[in-house]
Amino acid sequence: AIVARGIEMIYQSGAERFRALKNIDLDVKRGDIQLLMGPSGSGKTTLLSILAGILTPTAGSVSLLGEEIFKLSGSKLAHFRLQNIGFIFQGFNLFPALTAIENVEVALNLKGIRKGAARQQALGLLDQVGLSQQAKRHPQDLSGGQKQRVAIARALAGNPRLIMADEPTAALDSHNGHAVIELLRNLAKEKGRTVLIVTHDPRIIDVADSVAYLEDGVLKAGAHR
Amino acid sequence: AIVARGIEMIYQSGAERFRALKNIDLDVKRGDIQLLMGPSGSGKTTLLSILAGILTPTAGSVSLLGEEIFKLSGSKLAHFRLQNIGFIFQGFNLFPALTAIENVEVALNLKGIRKGAARQQALGLLDQVGLSQQAKRHPQDLSGGQKQRVAIARALAGNPRLIMADEPTAALDSHNGHAVIELLRNLAKEKGRTVLIVTHDPRIIDVADSVAYLEDGVLKAGAHR
Ligand SMILES: Nc1ncnc2c1ncn2[C@@H]1O[C@H](COP(=O)(O)OP(=O)(O)OP(=O)(O)O)[C@@H](O)[C@H]1O
Ligand SMILES: Nc1ncnc2c1ncn2[C@@H]1O[C@H](COP(=O)(O)OP(=O)(O)OP(=O)(O)O)[C@@H](O)[C@H]1O
Ligand SMILES: [Mg+2]
Ligand SMILES: [Mg+2]
Asked: Nearest C-alpha of chain B: how many angstroms from A220?
């Protein structure tokens, strides 16, 4: 479902030229849970953003569900991402002016699900991450782990076929962390979604089909399990 | 060094009245490493913010280094915090308009350390968290774990006697996480600082003198080790 070839990323800021990703190839089969691990600063967020079409690589190609995403026009790519990818950001990126439930409802609205149906599905998603009591809170009135869980609920809205998560359990304790891992495992194994997870959390290794390691922008595949 | 008695925190937002902390007592001896663990939403950030004087409790008292902090005037409290507390925020709270090194230098300036001395100390602190190569970057051009490490360096600036850290290893991999834990351990055991750490990270338990658990706003002390 995900095929990346020859990915290069060079960040240019002023005189500085930093090669963050070096000639990366990656294959993820449909319905698999693929982990991406590695030291802080190794390029995981950069790679995930490129695989999700959020960031354009300096070189290389990415094919998602058979579609060469960087050959699409800007608006076609935006539409493709909306329809097919649920992205969980490392920094959550919630809309501060909206409540928890509105944050999820907006994602549903963008997929054509509205009003009563949107409200119901949003409540269901918040319930899955243990946040039904916090539906009307704004992000500033939520704990770190609660914000992370709203971001997870929002990414899962509308059942995207590809889920890309950047450290989805970083702010979570043992119980909530396990609940999220189980949620992601179920989406892949019972519902056939393809799940790509960047993580430092060794607990997630147990549910992975494959683990790859990034170090200084170079990808080494762990053994396919 | 830290004595908290009868801490209550009630958040009021509109009609909602939420009791986040319930009659909390805590004692932390000087030079100890105290851990505060518990589920997402249990009140850890709230309690830490109160212990640091950043948030005023609905009831109760906090004494730091013998000083009753909520009896101080606003400016005296601000001055006391500046002189004595290094705080690492769960969301890092870096100044986006400043570079990594400037973020640390500003903290030193506020303590009367300037120019050459500030630059040198800032570089030393960044080096301790493995970021000497990233000194001139702005926060938006840093990875999640790099931002966390700048926040740590900044909190340690000027050698504060109390260090309060809200999930300081959440965004860090194994190697960097261990380096930070060792840094904090050394500050307590070799340099006599008092270190209070909110964490979900079980690796930190090994260096702790005491572990307390928060659940739904109620504190239970773990055994003093
Ligand atoms: N401004 C606020 N208004 C209302 N409720 C709040 C506010 N800030 C925090 N809360 C609630 O208080 C409780 C404790 O929040 P806190 O941020 O202290 O939790 P935490 O233990 O740090 O969680 P995490 O591990 O997820 O960071 C949570 O249920 C949270 O939703
Ligand atoms: N806009 C940018 N300009 C320059 N360098 C950048 C920029 N964004 C990221 N980098 C650098 O690229 C490298 C990879 O960053 P990335 O955010 O992908 O790391 P990461 O593996 O996700 O780290 P972490 O585990 O800390 O989140 C880092 O060294 C980072 O400093
Ligand atoms: Mg990252
Ligand atoms: Mg918190």
From this structure: 17
- Pull the structure tokens for residue B70: 């909520």
Structure tokens at B77: 């409290």
pLDDT at residue B223, as a whole number: 58
DSSP state, residue B55 = S
CB of residue B141 inside a 6 A radius of ligand 2: yes
- pLDDT band of residue A38 (cuts 50, 70, 90) is very high
In angstroms, the Cα distances linking A139 to A73, A122, A144, A205, B51 are: 33, 16, 9, 30, 23
Contact yes or no for B171 and A90 at CB 8 A: yes
Count other C-beta atoms under 10 Å from residue B216's C-beta.
13
Query: Could you state, in chain order, the average pLDDT of each consecutive group of 10 residues for chain B (225 residues)?
Result: 98 90 97 97 98 98 98 96 97 97 97 95 98 96 97 97 97 95 96 97 92 96 64
Average of per-residue pLDDT across A137-159: 97
Mutation test of the interface with chain B: which of A12, A37, A40, A198, choosing the one with the most B Cβ atoms within 10 A? A40
CB of A18 shorter than 6 A to ligand 2: yes
Cα(A40) to centroid of ligand 3, in Å? 7
Checking DSSP bridges between strand A194-198 and strand A85-88, what pairing results, if any? unpaired
The owner of tokens 């500085």 is A16
pLDDT single digits (tens) B90-147: 999 999 999 999 999 999 999 999 999 999 999 999 999 999 999 999 999 999 999 9
Chain A hits for B41, Cβ within 8 Å? 134, 143, 145-146
